[in-house]
Design goal:
alpha+beta, binds zinc ion, about 40% helix
Amino acid sequence: MSNRVMKRCKECGKRTLHVHPRTSHSVHLLLAIVTVGLWLPVWLMVTMYNNSQGHCTRCGKSVWLWPFFRRHQRRR
Ligand SMILES: [Zn+2]
């Protein structure tokens, strides 16, 4: 399962189709309820990880989809 999003690729220099693994939020919501909120940090981490796994379908370059991570990457 994966999400497809149109994102601007730095490598291609234009908006291209990016794919990243989809987070099954309904499953995580259920787990969060069952564990009385203990699952929330895990849910957040899984979401962040999945969002960071996006890559351009045109050049195959991985991109950080979240602005926070993009900012972090630029500093390197
Ligand atoms: Zn690209």
